[in-house]
Design a protein that fits this description.
The structure is a single chain. With about 550 residues, the chain is α+β, with helices and mostly antiparallel strands. The chain is about 25% helix and about 15% strand. The protein is built from 18 helices and 16 strands. The strands form 5 sheets. Strands 3, 6, 7, 8, 9, 10, 11 and 12 form an 8-stranded antiparallel sheet that branches. Strands 1-2 form a two-stranded parallel ribbon. α4 crosses α5. It starts with 5 loop residues before the first helix and ends in a 17-residue tail after the last helix. The N terminus is likely disordered.
Length: about 550
């Protein structure tokens, strides 16, 4: 019921706007409004203290956002409570009353995390004399890890790098694994991740095998060879277990790895460069589930928060994950939920992990805007990582033009589950409506990780930049071959990612820990933070004597 009391009309407007973080304490008038609404909406079953079902122990761990979310989603997935019939302003008032009034918890306004500006050394390059160019990238653009391995894991350490070596000339030549050997090397301080996260303590139950410290399930360490892939014709290194914590105590989500190319015949180093291997642990599950950041810098999932999550999973899904974690046997979420990222399909009757996570939480976080993404992804504009650091972000874009609002994104994943015959998906969809499209029927189903927004939806006509109102959501790549990191339009042999850089870090980038941190190669080879070859820099690959001008180059429109 929506109450039209004068007191509420005066008090509620200040509570109505959604927020991405902790908020100042509500006023006495707002608390009184919340108490009145609590009695009206909740009082038939709940009391504050003994009498009915005491609300205090049920909400002792929740934040205001967490309780708002709980009220929003009540009765939509589980039927132990009826759906909330009030307005969102009334919902927020009740949450403020319970958290601030009943429990006395004040959540101060969130402040921007201080960001150290880290030095970047640009390797030397003589455009007139040097014969080789080495282009390297992180295939993911941002690797996230859960960093609560004593409780559970669904994203263990494991970044991936790719690279190509080009012999400069009027007709540039991409060198293969018969001609050159490539290697990667983490910076000092980032070579012992086992000192900073507990994944290796529990690798046997999380990933199914005992692992040497600082080694991933793929056998990768923090330095080693890159393998030539004859199918993709690039060098790659998968499963590099980098974490954002350095031996000197600093948190750096953007460590710069050194890449080297050596002539196989002579052993001579031909060229070296550096590329960011990004990794974030800024998953703020505490915003709803209680607890705190895992680390004082404002990152990581604390054990308290992780245990709260396991307790909810056990209660709602009939599992015993918390008892397992307490017994020293935490698990990987993909050990049950299918996930194309891991090629995991142990229990195909369950929702894929991306569909389960987004499809469940959308019922509790409906009606919010792009800030909702930052509750789980490290893209908060006041956080430590600020992963949307590319040309799109510099133009003011958020996640939504490509990935949709949470409602849109979740429905695209859940519809794929419906196509697969999953009977759980319709339950999660029944109370969700899309934001960018008129109805659920208009949403195109997609497989997570393999079908992503297609760059060519907006970057048509030889990649001319689209207008500010362009939307890529709902047009997916057909399969993994259409992903940005795999495309090779125009060049034939060199993927787009080599010249334009990683997803969410495309040039011209602006890294939060130093504007040039993601732009080492453009600055090394052309002295300009822009896509390789942009602004008439054809000589980067074609050499100084090619005679090419921008107007003659097939890359000319890419500016």
């Amino acid at each position: 019921m929506a109450l039209g009391l004068g007191l509420l009309a005066l008090a509620l407007p200040a509570l109505a706007p959604a927020s991405s973080g902790p908020r100042p304490a509500p006023t006495p008038a707002e608390l009184q409004a919340g108490a009145t609404l609590f009695d009206a909406h909740c009082g038939s079953c709940h009391s504050v203290g003994p009498g009915a079902i005491d609300i205090k122990p049920l909400t002792a761990h929740l934040t205001r956002l967490g309780l708002e979310a709980y009220i929003e989603g009540q009765g939509l997935v589980f039927e132990h409570m009826p759906p909330f019939t009030g307005t969102r302003a009334e919902r927020d008032a009740i949450a403020a009353h319970v958290v601030a009034g009943v429990h006395g918890r004040v959540e101060p306004a969130e402040e921007a995390a201080p960001l150290a500006q880290l030095p970047v050394d640009i390797p030397a390059f003589d455009s007139a004399k040097d014969e080789y160019v080495l282009l390297g990238w992180s295939t993911l653009g941002m690797k996230c890890i859960t960093d609560c391995d004593a409780a559970y894991s669904y994203l263990p350490p494991g970044n991936a790098l790719g690279a190509v070596v080009i012999r400069r000339g009027p007709k540039p030549q991409v060198l293969d694994g018969d001609a050159v050997a490539l290697s990667y090397e983490a910076p000092e301080g980032f070579r012992h991740p086992s000192r900073h996260v507990r994944y290796w303590d529990f690798a046997a139950t999380i990933s199914g095998k005992e692992l040497p410290a600082d080694t991933s399930t793929a056998g990768a360490t923090l330095q080693g060879p890159m393998k030539w892939n004859p199918k993709t014709r690039v060098f790659d290194a998968a499963g590099i277990p980098v974490v954002p914590y350095s031996d000197d105590g600093t948190v750096n989500p953007y460590p710069l790895f050194t890449l080297r190319a050596v002539d196989k015949a002579t052993g001579k180093e031909l060229v070296s460069t550096a590329a960011v291997a990004p990794v974030g642990t800024e998953m703020s599950c505490w915003r709803c589930h209680g607890g705190s950041w895992g680390r004082p810098e404002g990152t990581g999932v604390s054990l308290e928060t992780a245990r709260n999550i396991l307790a909810v999973h056990d209660k709602r899904s009939g599992t015993d994950l918390l008892a397992g974690a307490d017994a020293g046997k935490p698990v990987l979420c993909q050990s049950c939920h299918p996930d194309p990222l891991f090629n995991a399909n142990v229990r195909p009757e369950l929702l894929s992990l991306p569909a389960a996570l987004h499809g469940f939480h959308v019922n509790y976080l409906k009606g919010r805007d792009a800030e909702t993404c930052s509750y789980c992804h490290p893209d908060s504009t006041v956080g430590l990582t600020r992963c949307l650091r590319d040309s799109h972000g510099q133009a003011g874009m958020t996640c939504t033009p490509c990935h949709g609002y949470l409602e849109d994104h979740a429905l695209s994943l859940l519809k794929k589950e419906v196509e697969k015959g999953n009977t759980r998906a319709p339950l999660l969809m029944r109370a969700v409506s899309p934001r960018l499209l008129p109805d659920v029927a208009a949403i195109n189903a997609r497989t997570p990780w393999l079908q992503e927004p297609d760059c060519l939806t907006c970057h048509t006509d030889d990649y001319i930049r689209p207008g500010a109102d362009a939307v890529a959501f709902n047009t997916w790549t057909a399969d993994s071959g259409g992903l940005y990191r795999a495309r090779k339009e125009h060049t034939g042999n060199v993927p787009c990612i080599a010249c334009h850089n990683s997803p969410h870090a495309t040039h011209p980038s602006a890294n939060p820990l130093g504007a040039d941190r993601d732009a080492v190669q453009p600055l090394q080879y052309q002295g300009l933070n822009a896509a390789i070859g942009a602004k008439g820099n054809c000589a980067v690959c074609h050499g100084p004597d090619s005679g090419l001008t921008p107007e003659m180059s097939p890359h000319h429109p890419m500016r």
